[in-house]
Amino acid sequence: MTETLPAPAGVPAEYRNIGRRVPKFDAVHKTTGHLKFVGDIQLPRMLEIKILRSPHPHARIRRIDTSKAVAIPGVKAIITHEDAPSHPYGREFALPPEYMPRDNFVIPDKARYVGDVVAAVAATTPDVAARAVAAIEVEYEKLPASLDPFAAIASGAPRIHDTVAWGEEVDHLDGNVLRTVSMGVGDVEQGFADADVVIENTFTVPKQQQSPMERRCIVVDPLPDGRLEVWCTTQSIHGLRHNLARALGIPYSRINVHQTFLGGAFGARLDMNVDEPIAALLALKSGLPVRLQLTREEDMMSTSRHPATVRLKTGAKRDGTLVAHEMEAHVDTGAYACSGEWVTKCMGGWFMSMYRVAHQRFTGHVIYTNTPPAAGFRGFGNPQANVPVESHMDLLADRLGIDPVEIRLRNYIREGDAYYAQGPNVVDYIKSCGVEQILTSGAKRIGWDRRAGFAGQGDRKIRKGIGLGRAFHTSGCGQANEVSDILEYAGSVVKINEDGTANLTTALIDMGTGNLMGHAQIVAEVLGLRAEDVLVSSTDTDSSPYDVVTHASRSTYVSGMVAKLAAEKVRDRLTELAGRILDADPGDIVLGGGRATVRGTGGAADASVSIEEIARTAQMRQWGTIMAEASERAVTTASHFTCKFVEVSVDTETGHVTVDRVVAGSDVGQVINPVLVEGQIHGGAAQAFGYALLEEIQVDRETGRTLNPDYLNYKIFTSRDACRDFDVFFADTYEDSGPFGAKGIGESANNDGASAIVNAVANAIGVHIKDLPLTPEKVLRALGKL
């Protein structure tokens, strides 16, 4: 069941394309197998790459002998740390070089986790490459390892990195803390002194894998002129070009990255990994095209959500008014920084922006360990902060005897309030807010008044519970400052074809969400065309304007707005040319139904001309191609808000939790395409429920080995686990700064689900479990049965 509430006053009740349930334009291509992913690319004489990885969590490479591997027929190139650039590089796409931590090496001379790269082979077949990898002889000097974040920061812990480069500066580390992030407002000590009730708890949130269907893959074709043609599973073709050029120490202009569709990403392709520079080096060394596709095990170890231990302390008045809020987080970034600092900064921003609290303080420690590196994951620190905060809101409500919905309604940030958009350096103000509507409507839809009856169900085998989680996220990373520590701008080109259709060119990546279909609808709305008449062109870094990266729920709000700006320039050109043809003032021309019509003429034949006729006339009279580009930065972030109410059943004999019903309310402004938004909400819920109940990458604390890097042992929510009773509804908000009033949704759809599950299980069993995931063993332990 899905409902879109009426648009607010002043907003057109009907659009031609906005709000339409338009199927994704790539759906038929995908279902028929016609669409090409990176792994489908075949080039003549292409070599296959395999990587030799360290079996030790911490070891120095003393000697490598590749002579036996080189002698194997079909081996064309081998690289070790002796062949690779010796300077460190950064992996993040959205940061200028000056703000990017650089601690990665194409191939390091010291392995820092089980699976770190030691050497790589390019050969005629995958089997030959694998045989060559097995033939490489390595002498390791084993080093003591730090496999736990608290052990890593203890006195005398083995040092993982001695230095980290930031721009031109180099930090000499005293231990394994990459950075400590601090932010706050007011006087926290005074706030707690003024509180009537203070509660404090510690939560742990797990290392979750993004689990995209498509494995990481890169194809590199070295051209005779020294340039590299690149196809890669990446969320940013321009970001990849920049980082790859820096890693290799070559000019940007020598690299051309092609846009491809992704078979899922969820942040797993947000940054450059080690694979891309390795493939590029082997292509250059062999002079032949190469492909590197990770195995499922390698892919699952390449990136994950940052696990964290979070201590939260909250003070309130007896009426439920929050007066003090403090969070300290220990965040495990793994063996390399990647986005660890930014995830931690964002955790602080998300924590401090959920509720109106005069006195707040956040401290986050970003810690190196000898474990596989963590990176961006849908929500980017938000779920790690949301679970503790929303659990605390329920615990506080119970302590005060106040309804959990009511305590949230009293304290949520709202229109006009300031909030931290992406950590301590980006402050914005809420301009549209539907929190009250989605909370009150969601409570009614789930039957919130039944919740009190579920508490204290005694010895019943199956216990029922209802829980709530609410969240927010930003639509991109825009800010007022022109020079900042995060990039946020986009570019689009719109062109009218001679048959009256349009082409849209954007470097934005479609990760399977259909975001480019939404862009086509935006362009069509501006030009008076059908969405089906806007063709999204495949592009590359040579021919497209810069777009930062598909992340931060920015696709519609930021890149969609820039597509709208380019379309508006084309609209102005069309009305100008229509005015010439019809001998009318361009200001009197309106576009609609594929035609340009003089306003007030009722569509008379001599007062209307088709867009196809305009384009053909422009060609015949040599007025030029009707096209325009736009490249703009975002200056605001437009918070979007969500809530999830869930009903669960807990089997007290097995500890198994079943999700019976979901009510999901979302404030996304004007919905561009309900099909796409609903898909985000359903998918976000599945990932969140997996985070709450099933998923955790487990690393052996003795050997450093990942214990479950495959889907036999790493369990995710599947279609069989999905809740069938899923009610989606939207608030009737309109965001003036967004394209046709739209805001984002992608990440916020994921942020609140785990919290709702935790609170629902607590309602069912009477115990709040603070260690995710809520496995059957933990549930039974909470019930005193283990």
Automatic annotation (TrEMBL):
Residues 32-144 form the Aldehyde oxidase/xanthine dehydrogenase a/b hammerhead domain. Gene3D superfamilies: Aldehyde oxidase/xanthine dehydrogenase, a/b hammerhead, Aldehyde oxidase/xanthine dehydrogenase, molybdopterin binding domain. InterPro entries: Ald_Oxase/Xan_DH_a/b, Ald_Oxase/Xan_DH_a/b_sf, Ald_Oxase/xanthine_DH-like, AldOxase/xan_DH_MoCoBD1, AldOxase/xan_DH_MoCoBD2, AldOxase/xan_DH_Mopterin-bd_sf. SUPFAM superfamilies: CO dehydrogenase molybdoprotein N-domain-like (SSF54665), Molybdenum cofactor-binding domain (SSF56003). GO terms for molecular function: iron ion binding; oxidoreductase activity. It comes from the Bacteria. It holds the Pfam family MoCoBD_2. PANTHER family: XANTHINE DEHYDROGENASE, XANTHINE DEHYDROGENASE SUBUNIT D-RELATED. This is CO/xanthine dehydrogenase Mo-binding subunit. It comes from Amycolatopsis jiangsuensis. The lineage of its organism: Bacteria, Bacillati, Actinomycetota, Actinomycetes, Pseudonocardiales.
